[in-house]
Amino acid sequence: MNLKQLEAFVSIADEGSFSRAAKSLFLTQPTVSAHISSLEQELNVRLFIRNTKEVSLSEDGKILYSHAKQMVSLQKQIEMVFDKTRKEGSHCLRIAASSVPAQYLLPQILAQFSEKYPEEQFKLMETDSAKVVEQVVNYNVDIGFTGTVFEKKHCQYIPFYQDELIIITPNSEKFRKLKEVKDTEDEQQDEDKMWIQKEPVILREEGSGTRREAERLLKNMGINLEDLNIVASMENQETIKRSVSRGIGVSIISRLAAEEELREEKILEFSLGSKQGKRDINVVYNKNFQMSSLAEKFLRVVKGV
């Protein structure tokens, strides 16, 4: 038994999937499977119950998990304590980010970081906001970026960019006429967004920060998800935008993500209001662990953006 096996075991238990665990550990799925197979053979037990959709802990797996989790956490604490003694540039910064910051904000930040510290390395994992926070909680990454706040123990959030969520629609005659009406209304009087209840709606997947914030904004407008005609949930923002432009439905997404399509007039935008549509993009880290010098450098670059 070794720590790599236990780390793979804990990650699979947390993620509920061999493939997601492999992604979070920056390993191949066969490597993760080999770790678990060796561990099961050594302990002579079955650690996971597998089906076509997910994996769950067996009774023996549940017993091992409580001990393994402590060992993996202790290993990471030891690594952090001695991180300062490592040679400059030998540590690789691990970053997890949800789709909006990963695709539209981090490229600029990483370019500035690389220009300022060309000798440093980093690994970037893109996932949804909920999984970003789990990666931070389990200290599988040094720093995370999320489009919403999940109240998790040990997490410290720092807002660094204010984003805006907007309703996007096809650029059709129907919505062009609606936009003409909305654009002539006084913003303070433009509180009637109930028209969205009459339209087919495409939302981001559960766990997405954009979806969580969209649900919050809709609730503030007096609209529950049950009031909407939700025709699809999608992970990929590009797929959502193409689907909207082709008339499948309307959606609520980040304005950052929609800028190109808006310029090219493939879609139309409707504001949720000057205050309602705003949300913070946050950098998040685990305050239970001492931040490495490399992570501190990166955080300074983020704050300067």
TrEMBL record:
One MF term in the entry's GO annotations: DNA-binding transcription factor activity
Record's keyword terms, sorted: DNA-binding, Transcription, Transcription regulation
Domain HTH lysR-type: 1-58
The organism's place on the tree of life at top rank: Bacteria
Transcription is among the record's keywords: yes
Pfam families: HTH_1, LysR_substrate
Family statement: Belongs to the LysR transcriptional regulatory family.
PANTHER family cross-referenced by the UniProt entry: HTH-TYPE TRANSCRIPTIONAL REGULATOR, HTH-TYPE TRANSCRIPTIONAL REGULATOR GLTR
Classification via NCBIfam families: LysR_Sec_metab
Record-given protein name: DNA-binding transcriptional regulator, LysR family
Organism: Faecalicatena contorta
